[in-house]
């Protein structure tokens, strides 16, 4: 009644408003105070009987409040935690009185629980009730999530006899109590949205000022629960890693001698900022001899620590079958590779690759940096260990081979089997390898083949009958034959990367290339021509740098509507180009140092997407006036075009042009008159030209070199 100011309270306030009509803000503050007092939870002496029980409950309540007032986080020995804690707390600063939810997300062993505990103890004195729900995933796996919820709700509602048998909290009375209290809750190690929904019984809001913190390895759990404040766990930096390792290995804050410093660096390169790995390895080395310590650290790169692996592996175990296969492929073959290319390759193998890669990212198993696939060394080692355990003793029965000696052994003995899905071989430290013509025939299911540092080291004296039919990714440095095997079915490869090869041509005749996305033949000095590519509708990238014997390009290039990149730089014998204007997706064309290229083809229609054209070092004498159809061009490089004598007047129609380089065009005497403004042009290099005029119609340039 007094909370809503009804009845006699309403009459009294009406009189106060009349008496203090010039101080209505003061009356308003009284109303707010009375409402707040009404919302305070407490003990009803009419309900809690007899008096000794009431007194006992009040005393316990006061003790809890006093404990809250003196609580603080003990951060001793928690290296780097304070800096991370302040970052998380800063996310909570806005709208302190509102109910907020925050997620802490990261791979296993990064200290999510430790950080959540530190925050919990640091701020709990500001809440009426608080509870730390530890090991949520483990409680569910043991079938005890119901018991955990009972414990949680009993604690925050201060009712030891509370029992809720349904999945949802239907009682309006309980919901009302929860909505009136400021509560701090940490849900640690959550792996599914359903766990949070069950623990909170369908309640979406707690009282004003309440905070819910969720730690997880799966970002999607946070997003699905409506958490928009997400802190991604940071790895320890080098100084923090050394300090943490020293504390556990040497019982000091820093290495004390050269041996300890060297050992620290070896462990840090392996643990890569993961606190759990650093602590586990450091503790295992504490008190051991120097020889033992060095031997154990070297062993870790071959034999992973079981405690670390166990903690990391459950994220893998939660994946779908296809996602598991994709993770193992990435761990064994595609770390550091362009995400788009990996997506194309995985899509051809398993389907729905984009969403599945997103899921691997959300579960903290991989990450993407500058569009390259990244994976923590510990997670990569976990993937390797999973593959090793498929067949600990028989290499040919494993699904993937990536250790040079293992791959070499299987290929030398011609022991490949249908079990193999991928094989990688680094020949840099191995003796020459002669393959039989049938070397690939037994590996019928092989999808990924990667030979590198192999120029002159992998020999095919008797030729090669074919590659496996299911091959999606072929990377072979120094491929020794003049062409690909005639029986090679090219319907499935997504990428052909055969740099430094002895290829003179790729194949004879016309092939069905429905999956091909990328061709790379850099430094293939014997390459004379490129075959008809009209049956490669999805081809996006062609890179043929330093193919010095290449003279002509097929006209079919102009029909490749998906083509985005063409790089023929340093193809010094290239003499002509087909028209590209139908390749409407083309964004970059690089013809640097094609020193025998005398003409540029007519651009018969507008090309909106081509933004970078490099013609530097070519033998061009002029550009066609139709160059104006490159309406999206931002950068035009014609440095060192020593035969260039004139430029078309239509240049001024390149409205998007920002950078124009003519440095070293020693025969260029006249710059065309600019009839239209080129507002975006900010850099023009005319140095070392024979220029005799400069038109004031050009815009004011940030950079002008004459």
From TrEMBL:
Keywords: Leucine-rich repeat, Plant defense, Repeat. Residues 321-391 form the Disease resistance protein Roq1-like winged-helix domain. InterPro entries: Apaf_helical, Disease_R_plants, Leu-rich_rpt_3, LRR_dom_sf, NB-ARC, P-loop_NTPase, RPS4B/Roq1-like_LRR, TIR_dom. Residues 4-81 form the TIR domain. Residues 585-668 form the Disease resistance protein RPS4B/Roq1-like leucine-rich repeats domain. GO terms for biological process: defense response; signal transduction. This is TIR domain-containing protein. SUPFAM superfamilies: L domain-like, P-loop containing nucleoside triphosphate hydrolases. One of its GO terms (molecular function) is ADP binding. Residues 96-253 form the NB-ARC domain.
């Amino acid at each position: 009644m007094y909370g809503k100011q009804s009845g006699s309270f309403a009459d009294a306030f009406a009189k106060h408003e009349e008496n203090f009509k010039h101080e209505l803000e003061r009356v308003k503050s009284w109303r707010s105070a009375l409402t707040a007092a009404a919302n305070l939870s407490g003990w009803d002496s009419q309900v809690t009987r007899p008096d000794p029980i009431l007194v006992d409950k009040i005393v316990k309540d006061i003790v809890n409040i006093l404990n809250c007032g003196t609580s603080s986080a003990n951060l001793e020995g928690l290296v780097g935690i304070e800096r991370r804690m302040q970052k998380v707390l800063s996310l909570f600063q806005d709208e302190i009185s509102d109910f907020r939810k925050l997620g802490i997300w990261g791979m296993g062993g990064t200290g999510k629980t430790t950080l959540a505990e530190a925050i919990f103890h640091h701020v709990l004195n500001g809440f009426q009730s608080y509870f730390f729900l530890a090991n949520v995933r483990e409680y569910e796996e043991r079938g005890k999530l119901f018991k955990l919820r009972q414990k949680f709700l009993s604690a925050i509602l201060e009712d030891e006899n509370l029992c809720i048998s349904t999945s949802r909290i239907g009682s309006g009375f309980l919901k009302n109590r929860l909505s009136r209290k400021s509560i701090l809750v940490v849900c640690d190690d959550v792996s599914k949205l359903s766990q949070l929904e069950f623990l909170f019984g369908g309640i979406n809001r707690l009282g004003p000022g309440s905070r819910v913190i969720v730690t997880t390895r799966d970002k999607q759990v946070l997003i699905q629960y409506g958490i928009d404040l997400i802190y991604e766990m940071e790895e320890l930096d080098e100084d923090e890693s050394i300090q943490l390792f020293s504390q556990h290995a040497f019982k000091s804050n820093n290495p004390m001698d050269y041996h300890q410093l060297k050992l620290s660096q070896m462990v840090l390169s392996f643990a890569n900022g993961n606190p759990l790995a650093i602590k586990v390895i450091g503790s295992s080395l504490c008190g051991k001899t120097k020889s033992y310590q060095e031997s154990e650290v070297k062993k870790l790169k071959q034999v992973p620590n079981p405690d670390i692996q166990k903690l990391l592996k459950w994220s893998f175990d939660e994946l779908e079958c296809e996602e598991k296969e994709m993770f193992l492929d990435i761990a064994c073959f595609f770390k550091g590779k362009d995400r788009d290319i990996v997506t194309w390759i995985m899509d051809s193998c398993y389907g729905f690759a984009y969403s599945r890669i997103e899921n691997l990212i959300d579960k903290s198993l991989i990450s993407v940096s500058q569009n390259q696939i990244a994976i923590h060394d510990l997670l990569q080692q976990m993937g390797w260990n999973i593959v090793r355990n498929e067949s600990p003793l028989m290499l040919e029965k494993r699904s993937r081979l990536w250790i040079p000696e293992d791959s070499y052994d299987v290929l030398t003995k011609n022991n490949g089997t249908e079990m193999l899905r991928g094989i990688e071989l680094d020949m840099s430290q191995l003796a020459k390898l002669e393959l039989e013509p049938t070397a690939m025939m037994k590996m019928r299911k092989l999808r990924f083949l990667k030979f590198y540092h192999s120029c002159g080291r992998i020999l095919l004296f008797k030729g090669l009958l074919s590659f496996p039919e299911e091959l999606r990714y072929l990377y072979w440095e120094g491929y020794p034959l003049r062409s690909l095997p005639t029986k090679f079915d090219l319907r499935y490869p997504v990428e052909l990367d055969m740099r430094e090869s002895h290829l003179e041509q790729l194949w004879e005749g016309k092939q069905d290339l429905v999956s091909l996305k990328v061709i790379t033949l850099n430094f293939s000095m014997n390459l004379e021509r490129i075959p008809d590519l009209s049956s490669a509708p999805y081809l996006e990238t062609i890179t043929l740098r330093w193919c010095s014997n290449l003279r002509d390009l097929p006209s079919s290039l102009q029909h490749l509507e998906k083509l985005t990149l063409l790089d023929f730089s340093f193809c010094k014998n290239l003499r002509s180009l087909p028209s590209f204007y139908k390749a409407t997706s083309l964004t970059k064309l690089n013809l640097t140092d094609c020193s025998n290229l005398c003409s540029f083809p007519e651009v018969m229609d507008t090309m909106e997407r081509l933004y970078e054209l490099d013609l530097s070092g070519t033998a061009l004498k002029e550009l066609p006036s139709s160059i104006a159809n490159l309406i999206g061009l931002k950068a035009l490089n014609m440095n060192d075009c020593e035969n260039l004598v004139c430029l078309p007047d239509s240049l001024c129609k390149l409205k998007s042009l920002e950078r124009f380089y003519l440095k070293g065009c020693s025969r260029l005497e006249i710059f065309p008159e600019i009839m239209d403004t080129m507002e975006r042009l900010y850099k023009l290099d005319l140095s070392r030209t024979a220029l005799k005029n400069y038109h004031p119609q050009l815009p004011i340039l940030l950079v002008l070199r004459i």
